[in-house]
């Protein structure tokens, strides 16, 4: 994210506090990953590409944020040579439902 121009303030928190924050932010276990961030009022969960975050901030939808559940190979931070899994970035809506925000193949 720093390479994309975002200012990052990374913090290590204990697991109970992290899970409580995820739940409070609307991140259910099915939508969860290993990283949780707040970006200009939106929650960003997992290995979300910087371009998707930039689009979110440009469009400013009435949503809670974005998530890439799990840790798909080839997503940012999960690079493994030429190996790459297709994955979707999901838009987390206010009611807890999701819709596909961007497909990555």
Describe the structure in your own words:
- The protein is an alpha+beta fold and 105 residues long.
- The chain has helices at 15-24, 50-59; strands at 36-39, 42-46, 63-68, 87-93, 98-104.
- A hairpin with a 4-residue loop joins strand 4 and strand 5 (98-104).
- The model has no long low-confidence stretch (mean pLDDT 92).
How many domains in all?
1
Please state the CA-atom Rg, rounded to the nearest Å. 13 Å
* Morphology: globular
Beta-strand fraction estimate: 25-35%
Query: Helix amount, in percent?
Result: 10-25%
Largest sheet: 5 strands, mixed
Question: What's the layout of helices and strands?
Answer:
Elements: H1 15-24, E1 36-39, E2 42-46, H2 50-59, E3 63-68, E4 87-93, E5 98-104
Parallel strand pairs: 2-3
Antiparallel strand pairs: 1-2, 3-4, 4-5
Properties at a glance:
105 residues; alpha+beta; five-stranded mixed beta sheet; 5 strands
Could you give a quick summary of the protein structure above?
The chain contains two helices and five strands, in the order H-E-E-H-E-E-E. It is α+β, with helices and mostly antiparallel strands. It has one domain (2-104).
